[in-house]
Specification:
This protein is mainly alpha-helical and 221 residues long. The protein has a 3-stranded antiparallel β-sheet with strand order 1-3-2. Strands 4-5 form a two-stranded parallel sheet. Helix 2 packs across helix 3 and helix 4 packs across helix 6. It is globular, with a radius of gyration of 18 Å. It has 8 helices and 5 strands, in the order αβααβββαααααβ.
């Protein structure tokens, strides 16, 4: 039993480590990786790395390619479009439901999130969005919705990391930090829809104007 628990702990660490690098685009979209190379590079055992990659495949973040290894999911124009279509349908009601179920402690967590300056960095935007939606996912307390939103959150993290990397392109300041003084579910739902649309327009503008698409493995297929 101890050996099994230890193996699970090691695979969890490997999963968290590799997932974090994929979401932050340290391991680039479209990049090919192998169990052995990742195990050596990140100092994880082969078994733990293999288990972590299997979980990441189920998350849709990597694809197993026989006799090659794994490919990190590329970020494509079609994928970005599908992400925002899906998020626009699921996101606002998810936020409204989460707001209606927040505990007092969870409200305090949201209120304590660091304020975003007008010229926020990509890291600040991603960290705020991750923290905000994590709290809401806990408040919703629905395992099926949480699993769907976890998948969307992974896509959101990677897309935001790329699209908001250049701080000179979003001086208009997307409404990433909703005004939630009264925590009204209907207001939060409306603000979430505005945020998603603003983020969609910003991202599509970045897609069509970026001069470094090859560097981020974004494809127009």
């Amino acid at each position: 039993m101890a050996d099994s628990s230890q193996g699970t702990l090691l695979s969890d660490r490997a999963y968290d480590d590799i997932r974090s690098r994929i979401l932050d685009c340290v391991i680039a979209p479209g990049e090919f990786v192998s169990e052995r190379a990742l195990a050596q590079q990140l100092d994880h055992g082969i078994a733990a790395t293999r288990a972590a990659l299997a979980r990441l495949a189920s998350d849709g973040l990597v694809t197993s390619i026989p006799r090659v290894g794994y490919q990190v999911a590329p970020i494509t124009l079609r994928g970005v479009t599908a992400f925002f279509e899906t998020w626009a349908i699921i996101g606002p009601p998810f936020v409204g439901l989460g707001m209606s179920r927040l505990t007092a402690a969870q409200r305090r967590e949201i209120e304590s999130l660091p304020a975003l300056a007008p010229n926020y960095t990509a890291r600040e935007a991603v960290e705020y969005a991750d923290a905000f939606f994590r709290i809401l996912a806990e408040a919703v307390d629905n395992s099926l919705l949480a699993e769907i939103f976890r998948r969307l959150q992974g896509d959101m993290h990677r897309i935001f990391t790329l699209a908001y990397w250049d701080t000179t392109t979003h001086g208009d300041s997307a409404p990433l930090q909703p005004v939630l003084a009264d925590f009204d579910p209907a207001t939060a739902e409306r603000q979430a829809a505005e945020f998603i649309e603003h983020a969609r327009r910003h991202t599509m503008n970045w897609v069509t104007t970026s001069t470094s698409l090859a560097d981020v493995a974004l494809s127009f297929r």
